[in-house]
Amino acid sequence: MRTSGPDTAAQSMDNKSFAAIAALAKEEAGLILPEGKMTMVQSRLRKRLLETGQPTYETYCKFVCSNEGTAERRLMISALTTNVSHFFRESHHFDMLRTKVVPTLLQKARDGQRIRIWSAGCSSGQEPYSISMCLHSAAPELVSRDILILGTDIDPAILEKAEAACYSEQQISGIPEDMRKKYLEHANGGQFRVNADIRRLVRFRELNLLREWPMKGAFDAIFCRNVVIYFDAATQASLWPRFRQRIANNGWIFLGHSERISDSALHLFEPNGMTAYQAAGSGSSAIRKE
Ligand SMILES: C[S@@+](CC[C@H](N)C(=O)[O-])C[C@H]1O[C@@H](n2cnc3c(N)ncnc32)[C@H](O)[C@@H]1O
User: What pLDDT is stored for residue 286 in this prediction?
Assistant: First the structure.
């Protein structure tokens, strides 16, 4: 019977190590880990201890905070992020996409302009693929135009799943029946794969929202849902002006059900529906106000 090593250590994260991990998670990714999450953090990092060969949380903590731990920091953040997602989650946003956003997109496309939508914090891909399915079914004319749905996330492991586009029967249950028939194909192991027509509109990139955003041009709509809820108020407040700069005039931003634009940035957005906002004013005036 083993009496030492990671399995035993996994049961005993000390307060100092937890505080150091929490500080690192905030610094690297904006994630807020209150003390009440210590058990969750322990269990999520248990595998990291085993894979790095670190015998205790204390030694793991020292390693991940050191210069040698740079690569491990990315894997630690990947382990600490919450990646829960569903197809057509908070379906009222997809109703709005169809009824309020698509008419503008169609007009833009007919005028020869490009269409760009950003799923920021896209997790395993259900959100950008739901957007693609929604556009395909509501406006087939759009999909042959210059249109792109960008899915970004800080977590490279979850982006691999998003690229694979394979989901279990339970995971696809949120997709309306008619779309399941049109947009899914059978894959190995009883799974279902989002088909090429839907995948073709979507590109995935690794991106930390706290760092620079290399994308050029403005988005017609940004879905950033159930992401900023893991950040503190100051980090959230710092993001809204940056999002505003990236939204086309009259473009949209959709947030998760428990998320709101901070008061300090409300002048940049007009509330328009449940956790939905339209960019207020022109982009340049929004940039000046920042
Ligand atoms: C709960 S999921 C939300 C997925 C999807 N937007 C939805 O609503 O179903 C949150 C995602 O945000 C990502 N995330 C957390 N911190 C991030 C950061 N600093 N930059 C980019 N993505 C981040 C996580 O990796 C995770 O995949």
Answer: 36
Query: What's the CATH number for 92-289?
Result: 3.40.50.150
pLDDT at res. 281: 74
CA of 158 from ligand 1 middle (Å) equals 10
CA 155 to ligand 1 center in whole angstroms: 8
Q: CB within 6 Å of ligand 1 — which residues? A: 29-31, 81-85, 89, 121-123, 127, 153-155, 158, 207-210, 225-227, 230, 256
The number of C-alpha atoms within 13 Å of 14 and in the hemisphere containing its C-beta is 9
Residues in the chain, overall count: 290
Q: Given 3-state DSSP classes, what are the helix, strand and coil percentages for the chain, each rounded to the nearest 5?
A: 55, 15, 30
pLDDT tens-place string over residues 203-250: 999 999 999 999 999 999 999 999 999 999 999 999 999 999 999 988
Which CATH number, 3.60.20.20, 3.40.50.150, 3.40.640.10, 1.10.155.10, labels domain 6-80? 1.10.155.10
pLDDT at residue number 95: 98
Give the angle subtended at the CA of 82 by the CAs of 87 and 240, to the nearest 5°.
85
Q: Which residues of 194-221 are buried (b: 16+ CB within 10 A; e: fewer)?
A: bbeebbebbebeebbbbeeeeeeebbbb
DSSP H or E run through 62:
helix 57-65
Atom of ligand 1 nearest to the CA of 153: 22
Sign of CA dihedral 189, 194, 197, 203: negative
Distance CA 95, CA 80 (A): 32
Name the residue at shortest CA distance from atom 27 of ligand 1.
123
